Amino acid sequence: MKDVLIDWSLNQNLKYGSSNSEKVSLKVKEWTIAKGVKNWSFDASSPIILALFSNEEDNLNNILKAFGGFGNIIFGQIILNEEDVTYNFPGWERQIAYLASNQFQWNKLFSVRHNLIKTAKSVRPFLQAIGRNNTKVKIDIASLKNTGRNLNRAEFKARVIKLIKAFINETQTSRNLFIKEYETQINEFHERFAKNKFNFPGGEELAEVLIRKLNAEEENMIVNNNLLFYQSLQDRISSLENLVGDCICGCEPPKKRKKEFELNEMPFIIDEINSYLEDKIFLTRKQIRTTLKSCNNHNQIFSNELNQALAYKKINLSRTQVDQIIEEWVDLAEVQRIKFNMKQDFIAMQLLPDEMQLLLKNIRHEIEIYHKKLLDHQKFEDASVYHQELKDLEDKLIDFRDLIDDNISLIFEELQLTSLLKRRYSDLSLLERRIVKVIQKLVVVNKVLLLENPFYLLERSDKVKLAKWLKILAKKLSIIIIFSSKSNEEISLVASHLAVIENGLVVQQGKIGEISAKPLSLNLLKEMNKRGLNVFLGQWYPPTLSFYNKQIAIFPNLKNAPIIALKASDIIFSYRKPLFTFFSKVIKISGTIKEVNKINERQSLLTFKTFDDNLFEVLVYNYNNFKIGSKGWISIVKNTIYIFDSENKQLIGTW
């Protein structure tokens, strides 16, 4: 079996191999989901591992669910390898695998390999992709056998197929121009109606949501019409079978060779064109499912927005009044759609037959050229070349079991876990069960893997092993992994990138090292410094913020006292009053040692009680004999104080 197997209809690999060296491109544009995140945008390319950190775990779960296709998306796009997959159905068709923390159903008495194969068999779009691949290959094999070694016949087939495809594409191009004109008109209509009828307080926001809902319905109608268009083309192309039989070009072939001139090639040409149209029909049906999901999504969002607007009196109209305006809007939009459909019917009844006549004329011309070559100058391909072409085609036929076995073997060999394949699920450890749960989502090739709390309940040593395996999977399979976690330990073990989400807003994202150097979230700073982070309310005399009588910042637009945070490692302890008392960039505080906690052989954490009874934690080296009750001083140098807004816990300055 070939290493590179691709279902072009889905732009999706069927098998892990050399084609997976190509990077996966993921773009999220102004993405907004309910109870998750607002206006999130980012670009990524494989192999990366992105961690999502938030002060609310539900936010992270909602984000992953919506990413995987299981939640409502209010606005925005997910672009995967230049394809919009925002509203694609969950699973393999979406090319994004989502693994929830409680999502796993296996027969514990069977081996890991048996369960993985059974899981793959349940992925219907994957099986359909294999079936489409094999159907196309069989058509090509039958066509090649019909052609034989006759190069004239091969050339004729290729030229007629090219003619028909050009006819299909030109017809679609003309139709697309008409559709674009309609979309422009309907958008202008929606904007005018919204401006005239939704000019009451709160109406503008509601109209925006309603326009998105109506646009989704327009798109669904257009792709449904596309399906009818391609199906009508199939019917018209099938009529070319009438060309089979007695020669229509008047070339009068010899009686002994009459059968060669009966155009028995036409059924194979029609099969190939039907296969070409089937690909377009498949993609259109996929678009229908996608747009239908988008319609349902926007219907629910609009319903929620309207109910909230009425419940909280954001608009000064009654439900009946709003319903009347919407009904009028929908009725007028329906008039526009009827006009569009009538014009489409005109194209189907008037223009298509004319274009078909032109196509038939061009095909007859190709028949004349072909028959002339058969009579005057026949060319034949070398037998070895012909048999090699036939063998290459036969090699492209996919056996499902072989394909899945290859994928399973490759993954487990890369992780050096082949010994697990023969073991029963009930005999696996918690760590082994966790990695097998991950692998089951990758047996059928996916490009993005979403993991919900993958390190949950694991010991530190097991977390290290799982992190190592996830890094190998991201690199060797060239995929993007996105996981949720509230633990800095887990994030630092495996993530290359981090997105920090506070109260539904992405406050910081980028490489781990850059974010660790200057966290913009108080919650993240606390998580990164579980031991030894000092947090205080500053001395607030609006708009001036002071700390131990030292003015450190001015915030003219701030209402409440900001939060001050200092790392224990940034505070200097000394028994004597610091000599650099004349420096304006140092805060000096006197007090006593209240507690000493030894961290390791080199360092200890002091609890230092200041003269005004505040407690500071200070990281020190164990070169001194620190005694409880001893007097001393702490020094805070400029550029070590973080200042956060007390309401949203986001960084607003430093000192």
TrEMBL record:
PROSITE patterns: ABC_TRANSPORTER_2. One of its GO terms (molecular function) is ATP hydrolysis activity. InterPro entries: ABC_transporter-like_ATP-bd, Molybdenum_import_ModC, P-loop_NTPase. Residues 292-528 form the ABC transporter domain. This is ABC transporter domain-containing protein.
